[in-house]
């Protein structure tokens, strides 16, 4: 993260890049190796967006892996011993 970026700026940047990759993916044939690369990029970018949203709000992604877990305030800091 750049020194001047905050979470809102990061989310805006990742959202913009996600739209660009989606557009390129729509133009690519599903069977091509390029399609697979673009799908991997989209998965990565969605993960980045989910992480930023979590850090901002404590809202967990709705991806099927977090069912039954309630939204909460994220812990900020590196003290993992407290867990």
Task: Please characterize this protein's 3D structure.
There is one protein chain. The chain is an all-alpha fold. The chain is 54% helix and 0% strand. It is built from 2 helices and no strands. The longest helix has 25 residues, at 33-57. The chain starts with 6 loop residues before the first helix and ends in a 26-residue tail after the last helix. The model has no long low-confidence stretch (mean pLDDT 83).
Secondary structure topology:
Elements: H1 7-26, H2 33-57
How would you describe this structure in keywords?
single chain; 83 residues; mainly alpha; 2 helices
Span between termini:
26 Å
How many beta-strand elements?
0
Q: Main sheet?
A: none
Order of helices and strands: HH
- Residue fraction in strands: under 5%
Determine the structural class based on helices, strands and strand pairing.
mainly alpha
Radius of gyration: 16 Å
Percentage of residues assigned to helices:
40-55%
Oligomer: single chain
Shape: flat
Average pLDDT confidence is 83
Count of helical stretches: 2
Low-confidence stretches: none
Give a quick summary of the entry.
With 83 residues, this protein is mostly helical. It is 54% helix and 0% strand.
